[in-house]
Amino acid sequence: MISIRSSYHPIDAAILWCGLADHEEEILRVDLSHPGSLLKHFPQWPFLHIYAECIYDAIVSGELPATCLGRPITLDNQVHREYWTIRRADLLVWFARNYPGEKPAFLFPQNLNHLNCVSLNAHLVQEAEVSAAQRTIDKLRDELAARAEELATLTSCNSELTTRLEAQGIPSEASESTHNMLVGAMLAVTVGKSKDGRQQSIYKSQSDLVQEILRRFPGLPSLSKSTIDRRFAHARRYFAQVGRG
């Protein structure tokens, strides 16, 4: 007979597992709060004690989920065994995993055609795979969140550093490119020649322009000959590259 109950006490499950439903009332009249009570009062049914202890051990080890007065049973909450309750679904899964050869009638339908049904083992395997996949997804989601947080921190640091550099007069990459474009264009107009080959400036070469700058602004910071030559050369290269691109 298939039970339609949604939950069981461990003793109830052991009684049904042993096929002693007809003796349930007799068994439950005994004080079963002590582990050895079943074996003491019903030595003629040794498996009743064995099966009950199997269920209790599974609950204590965390292998079989159970509750006590509605609260989950944990390592710190394992008293009042007479009030423990197991959900039918959890009990069925526990049987399938640990006692695949056992098919108690109170849990498993007997003599039914399952040709078009997915086996319980297959379902449990699929359920385990889905759980593993979900754990992987959760782990990846946590890693993504951590990377996003790191990126946000780096972006904030970069913005702060750019602001500090600009405040100190150190150009950013964008302003550096703009400066090179301006200086390169100025040099092209100042010391270059027109398309028809005419001189465009009183300065015949870049060297003459540098000499004039040094003559007019002697001793100013960042206006040494080596600095000006280097900056002019870099600006002309950049300007030429942009013009070719």
Q: What does the overall shape look like?
A: rod-shaped
Q: What percentage of the residues does DSSP assign to strands (E)?
A: under 5%
| Count, helices | 9
Mean pLDDT: 80
Could you say which structural class the secondary elements and strand pairing correspond to? mainly alpha
Amount of helix: 55-70%
Number of domains: 3
Low-confidence stretches: none
Termini separation (Å)? 85 Å
Structural Rg: 43 Å
Q: What's the story with the biggest beta sheet?
A: 4 strands, antiparallel
| Helix-strand sequence | EHHHHEEEHHHHH
Q: Can you list the strand order of the major beta sheet? A: 1-4-2-3
Tally of strands: 4
Structural account:
The protein has 245 residues and is mainly alpha-helical. It folds into 3 domains: 7-112, no CATH class; 114-170; 173-244, no CATH class. It has helices at 10-17, 24-28, 37-41, 46-60, 88-98, 120-167, 173-190, 206-216, 225-244; strands at residues 7-8, 67-68, 71-72, 84-87. It has a 4-stranded antiparallel beta sheet. A hairpin with a 2-residue loop joins strand 2 (67-68) and strand 3 (71-72). Helix 8 packs across helix 9. The longest helix is centred in the middle third of the chain and has 48 residues, at 120-167. The radius of gyration is 43 Å and the shape is rod-shaped. It starts with 6 loop residues before the first strand and ends with a helix.
